[in-house]
Specification:
With 218 residues, the chain is α+β, with helices and mostly antiparallel strands. It is built from 7 helices and 9 strands. Strands 1, 2, 3, 4, 5, 6, 7, 8 and 9 form a 9-stranded mixed β-sheet that branches. One of its GO terms (molecular function) is acyltransferase activity, transferring groups other than amino-acyl groups.
């Protein structure tokens, strides 16, 4: 069912949206400090990103919640994390090697760091929000996030994400997130900001949870 959000029709995405929304994800994330660090060559990056975001989109449909707009100009992928989620590192490594080939090690490293510092407290995780580059700076992404945030406030749950540049960090601060301890990617990588939008209470929102790095083993 489509829901109007600030004059923007937001609806659940389906497999029929895959081709268009995977393109939106790949193009929206093609440029930026993390993208440059992961895959320096832009053409190789574009090919890998289309495969990577196809996997992310289909995984989101199966295990999370994916939303788009009536014109398919934007997409969000959320994952409820109501309890610590077990991972299958060997299986994920094989998947990423198929998707990214020689670029897989840095993507594995990025995902491992994100998982290691992921909060254990119940929350919903914003894995991706992407707007068609031709439609950016029109408030579409903000409207989609506000649509989901209202739902989280109604059920009393926080939201968590990683901001990969200063512009997105500032946007999330305006939307009620607070910044936790950042992560600096190795081998001269960029800074990633961990962001938390606490659950509402009588006077404020729940604070950023304590950082407890998870022990991982491959």
């Amino acid at each position: 069912m489509a829901i109007a959000s600030n004059d923007l029709a937001v609806r659940p995405a389906t497999e029929a949206d895959a081709d268009r929304l995977i393109a939106v994800l790949a193009e929206a994330f093609h440029d930026g400090p993390v993208a440059d660090w992961l895959i320096p060559d832009p053409e190789q990056r574009r090919a890998v990103y289309y495969r990577y975001f196809r996997d992310a989109f289909l995984h989101g449909l199966k295990h999370g919640e994916v939303y788009t707009t009536s014109d398919q100009s934007a997409v969000t992928i959320w994952h409820p994390h109501l309890e610590p989620t077990p991972t299958k590192p060997h299986q994920r490594l094989e998947t990423l090697e198929t998707i990214a080939g020689a670029h897989a090690p840095k993507i594995v490293l990025l995902e491992e760091m994100f998982d290691t510092f992921h909060p254990d407290e119940p929350h919903h995780y914003l894995a991706y929000v992407a707007v068609d580059p031709q439609r950016q700076s029109r408030g579409i992404g903000t409207a989609m996030l506000n649509h989901y945030h209202r739902r989280l406030d109604q059920i009393g749950l926080p939201a968590y994400l990683e901001a990969t540049d200063m512009r997105s960090r500032q946007l999330y601060l305006r939307l009620g997130y607070t910044a936790g301890p950042p992560m600096v990617l190795p081998t001269q990588g960029p800074t990633v900001w961990r962001m938390w939008r606490g659950a509402p209470n009588a006077t404020t929102r729940s604070p950023f949870p304590p950082t407890r790095p998870r022990r991982r083993s491959l």
